[in-house]
Design goal:
Layout: E1 4-9, E2 20-26, H1 28-45, E3 52-58, H2 62-71, E4 76-88, E5 91-100, E6 110-118, H3 122-132, E7 138-146, E8 159-163, E9 168-170, E10 186-190
Parallel strand pairs: 3-4, 3-6, 6-7, 7-8
Antiparallel strand pairs: 1-2, 2-10, 4-5, 9-10
Helix pairs in contact: 1-2
Bound molecules: inosinic acid (IMP).
């Protein structure tokens, strides 16, 4: 793993001091290589002609989902769901709200949830319960990042990009107060203190 220490201070209009990006955890090249490997694993596991219904969890997964599906060869259909996970400081409070549901029914269809990061696991736990109740033929999850030491509830993940320590990360779709989603790499913000949202 390549760890480059840099400090980028980005201008913000708010009165809060801008957070500093301290360390690049994964470069764009490392991410792309891992995403391609995940796509190959998903392709290998999905050997039917029945299109895989890929469900991206917005907003955080949008970059990952875009790269993952373009690396996949499995026939697929795409949908998005919008979830609000309310934070209590840096931790999910457990209060989760479905802001936008799927566009189509999933009964009898193979479904792959694509999530940016699994932290306490509460969001994924909730999503699994909601989607499983709709009786898909299978329900699997791919997440780019996982913080296993932070898990508070059971959240089954079938494909994991990178397991990371308890650090707050941004970039490649992940944000801090809606910033940094556009970064092509994944970086650590120090101190890990995202504001409530
Ligand atoms: P949960 O605690 O697994 O429910 O995660 C809730 C949500 O918090 C995730 O889907 C992310 O949107 C966000 N989150 C958790 N950890 C991070 C992080 O390190 N960076 C950016 N967002 C995070």
């Amino acid at each position: 793993m390549l760890a480059i220490s840099i400090v980028i201070v980005c201008g913000v209009a708010d009165d809060m001091p801008p957070p500093a990006i301290d360390t690049i955890l994964y470069t764009a090249e490392e991410i792309q290589a891992r995403v391609r490997a995940m796509a190959r694993a998903i392709d290998a596991d999905h050997q039917t002609d029945d299109p895989l219904h890929v469900v991206g969890v917005l907003k955080g997964s949008f970059v990952f989902a875009a790269d993952l599906i373009r690396a996949m060869r499995t026939p697929l259909t795409l949908d998005f769901i919008v979830i609000a996970s309310y934070l209590d400081g840096a931790t999910s409070s457990g209060e989760i709200q479905l802001l936008k549901d799927l566009d189509s029914a999933i009964e009898g269809r193979p479904v792959l949830i694509v999530e940016d990061i699994v932290d306490t696991g509460r969001t994924l736990h909730y999503l699994h319960a909601v989607l499983r109740a709709r009786a898909p033929s299978s329900l699997k999850t791919a997440c780019l990042l996982s913080k296993p030491t932070r898990r508070a509830v059971d959240a089954p993940v079938d494909y994991v990009g990178f397991e990371i320590d308890d650090r707050f990360v941004v970039g490649y779709g992940l944000d801090h107060a809606e910033r940094f989603r556009h970064l092509p790499h994944i970086a650590v913000i120090e101190p890990p203190a995202p504001p409530p949202r």
